[in-house]
What we know:
3 helices
Amino acid sequence: MEGMHEEPEPQEDSGHVREGHAEIVDAAKKEEHHEDVKEKLKRKEFEIFVGGLDKDATEDDLRKVFSEVGNVTDVRLMMNPQTKKNKGFAFLCFATVEQAKRAFTELKNPLVLP
């Protein structure tokens, strides 16, 4: 095959990254980060903060009270690792934004008994 010139395949050098490729990877990472931030913000719409809890209150206690206004999908009860009791506050996630808003408006001073 005289006259045909075969280009050598490009070799990747692990110490160097082509500039164009780096820009694409960087843009992809920024887009992924942006999507993560948007998803977290969206989840926050479904979430409410509950403070002033009795230190003996449990996740089940919170679910019992707040399930009256909606479907509680997640309870994050902040715990003190030394005392093994809660820190007096929690974050509750609901199935819909409407349920979270309803819990916020209808349960201003809920009584959560341990």
